[in-house]
Amino acid sequence: MAVSAVALLSVPCVGHAASLPPGLTEQAIGTTVERARQAFNVPGIAVAVVHDGDIVFSHGYGRRAEDKSSAPVDRRTLFAIGSNTKEFTTTALAQLVDQGKLDWNDRVIDHLPEFRVADPSITRDFRVSDLLTHHSGMGLGAGDLMLFSHSTLTRPQILAGLPFMPFTAPFRTQYAYNNLLYVVAGALVERLTGQSWEEIVQKRLIDAAGLPACQSTPRVKGQTNVATGEGETGILPDKAALRLPGVAPAGGIWCSADGMARWAQTYLNGGRTPEGRQIFSQASRDTLWAPHALLPLPDTAEATKTHFRAYGYGWFMEDFFGQKRVWHTGTIDGMVSYMTFLPESRTAIVILTNHDDHNATYAIATTLSAYVATGASADWVAHWQDAENAAHAAEAKAAASTGPGSPARPFITLSESTQQDYIGTYRDDWRGPITISRRGQDLRMAFSHADGLTGTLSALPHDLFVVRWDDRGQDASDDSYVQFERDVSGQVVGMNMRVIGSDFSFDAQDLHPRKVSSSFSEEKEAKRL
Questions:
Q1: Which of 116, 336, 361, 470 has the greatest count of CB atoms below 10 A from its CB?
Q2: What confidence tens digit (pLDDT) does each residue in 153-187 have?
Q3: pLDDT top residue among 75 and 235
Q4: Residue 288 and residue 91: Cα distance in Å, rounded?
C-alpha cells in the first residue's frame, strides 16, 4: 500500500534499541491509517508512537490540504490540535500548583475577582477544579459562539459574557463539555503570572520541553509546512496583523506529530523531558490523570471491556481491555487530533488530521491502542464508517420529512412590507448585536464581533426562517432555524435560534436576542460586508 515517502523517526535510548510496542507493527499502522484516510476522505494524517521513553514512529500520510496538488504531510507539518490544547492549559496551572501559587481547591474569585456566573451562590463556591471537569451545570457547548464562528471577541469580553450563560443542570452533577471555562482557566494563568497565556505556554511548556514544530499562536505567512483544514482557504495572516483568538486556552495550539510525540514522552516520564529536565511534577501529572468527574459509558464499552469513563483535568480516562487509557481529542479549523496513552504499556499514540471528521481519528486510535493492549483489533474503521453512514441516512430522512423545504415546512415568499417587520437591530446579552437587513430581495442576518458570520434568511410559515451562512466552506453545517417572536400587538420583539445540524459549538439555542431598533442601514451593511 503506497504511503508518502517520509522517513521513520527513531531515537534509541542508551542501553536498548527503540522499537514499537509488542503487538503493533509498521504495517498495521500504515494499513489502518490508509484505510481510515480513504474511508473518511481525509486528505492528510500524521501519526506518532512513543514507547519505553522513545519516539519509535513518526510518519506522514497524504497531503496538507484538500487541494490534490498540495505538498505531502510529514512529521513536522503543523496541525491545529484543538481541544488537545486543554492539557497544556491544565499543565500550566499544575506548574503554578507546584510553585505553591495555586491550589486546585482555591475559589476562582479569590484570584479573579471579576469572575461571575449566573448564580451568585455558585460564583462564590466555584473552585479552580470546577473550571476543568465539564460539570459546571452549564449546557453543552455553552458560550461557544463567543469563541468560534469567526468571533473577534477578546478574552475580557468573553469573561464579561459569562454571567449570562444559563445553567441547565445543578452545579457539579452532569457532564456537559465546555470550552468557555477553559478560557477562564487561561485568564487565571495570565493573572497569576502577569504574562499572556501564549507566552507562558510557549516558554514554560513548549520551549522548556523542547517540542519541535509546535507553537501557542496560529500559523502565519511565511510558514510553509502547515496543514489546511477542511473548508479553509489556506491564506495565512501577516505576523504583524496576527489577532490572537479568545479561544486559545481551550483550543489554540498548532503542533506537529514530532512535537506532540515529545509532549507525550514528557507526560509518560512524569513531567520530565528525555534529557531529565523536570517541567512539572509527577504528583501534578498524576492529579491531572486522576478521575475527578464521572462520565457515561461509551457505546463501544462492551467491545473494549470498558467499565468506567471519567474526566480528570484536561484528560479523559477509562479502562480499556484491562488497562488504564488516558486520552483527548480536539476539533477546530476543519482539523481533528487525537492523543492517547496506555501508561501501563508505556505507550502513547498521536494522530493529527486535516478533515473535520472525528470518526477517522477514533478508528485509528482505537485500532492501534487495541493492538498495543491485546495484540489484535476489531475492524474499527468499518465500525465507525457504518456509524457515519447510518447517521447520514437518518439526517437525510429527517431533512426530507420535517426539514426546511420539506412538505411539513415549505419555503414561502414574503412581500416587502412583511419583510419590514423583521428588519432592525437585535441585542443578545452575551453575544451582542445581531442585525437583520434587506439586500435586494433578501433578508440578511449579520453577527457583530465576527469576521464574516453573515447569511441569507429564507422564510417558512409562522415567523420561522432558515439562515444559510455565506461561508459554505466553514459554516454550512451551522445553518440554523430563526424563530421570530411577536408581542400581543403583533410587533416583532425578538427571536430564538437553533442549529439545524448537530454542531454543539454553534450554541444558537442559548441566544435570546431582543429587538432594540426597527431600522438598519443597507449601505452600512454593504460596506461592512
A1: 336
A2: 999 999 999 999 999 999 999 999 999 999 999 99
A3: 75
A4: 8
Among candidate residues 95, 127, 134, 89, the one with its CA nearest the CA of residue 108: 127
Polymer length of the chain: 529
Helix axes 26-39, 380-402, angle to 10 degrees: 10
DSSP string across 240-276:
GG----TTHHHH--EE-HHHHHHHHHHHHTTSB-TTS
Span 416-434, mean pLDDT?
A: 96
Q: Cell triple for residue 19?
A: 522499537
Query: What per-residue confidence (pLDDT) applies to 3?
Result: 33
Name the residue type at position 361: T
Number of domains into which the chain is organized: 2
| Bridge partner list, 488 | none
Containing structural domain, residue 317: 26-387
Which three cell numbers, joined as nine digits, stand for 455? 447569511
Q: Do 361 and 444 share a structural domain?
A: no
Beta strands in 120-213 (DSSP E): none
Average pLDDT rounded to a whole number, residues 103-108:
98
Q: By three-state DSSP, how is residue 108 classified?
A: helix
Any idea what DSSP says for residue 206? I
Q: 180-193 and 86-98 helices cross at what angle (nearest 10)? A: 40
* Whether residue 348 sits in one domain with residue 229: yes
Same domain, residue pair 288 and 212: yes
**Burial code of 293-306, b = ≥16 C-beta within 10 A, e = fewer?**
bebeeeebbeebeb
Where does residue 291 rank: exposed (0-12), middle (13-18), buried (19+ CB within 10 A)?
Answer: middle
Residues 6+ apart with CB under 8 A from 216: 88, 197, 198, 199, 201, 202, 206, 248, 252, 253
Whether the predicted model's global pTM rises above the 0.90 cut? yes
Inter-helix orientation angle 380-402/358-374, to 10°: 150
DSSP 375: S
Neighbouring C-beta atoms of residue 432, cutoff 10 Å: 17
> Residue 239 — very low, low, confident or very high, per pLDDT cuts 50/70/90?
confident
Among the candidates 366, 387, 408, a domain finishes at 387
Residues 6+ apart with CB under 8 A from 246: 146, 147, 151, 153, 154, 155, 157, 158, 183
For cell 431598533, name the residue: 517
Rounded distance between C-alpha atoms, residue 416 and residue 436, angstroms: 14
55 grid coordinates: 519516539
Residue with cell 514530532: 258
